[in-house]
Amino acid sequence: MDNKVEIIETGEGLVNIKNQCPNCGSYQLKYNEKLGKIFCSFCNNTFEPKEIEGIETDLKELTTQRIGSGALDINPEFNNIMTFKCPSCGAEVVFDTKSSTQTKCHWCHSILTINERIPNGAVPDVILPFKITKEEAMEEINKFVDNKRFFARSDFKNNFTAENTVGVYLPYLLVDVNAHCKLTGEGEKYLQTNQVDNVSANAYRIEREFNITIDDLSIESNSNILDKNTNNTNNIINSIMPFDTENCVKFESNYLVGYSCEKRDVNISNLKEKADKQVKDIIRASMKSSINQYDRGVSWKKQDINIFGSQWIAAYLPVWLYSFQQKDGTIHYIAVNARTKETHGSIPPDNFKLNLWTIVIVSVLFILLFILPEENKEDSINIVSGVCIAVICANIFIKQSYRSKSLRHNYEKETKYNVTDLVSNDTFIGRRNGLSSSYIAYRNDNKAFGA
Question: Is this prediction's pTM over 0.90?
Answer without folding.
Answer: no
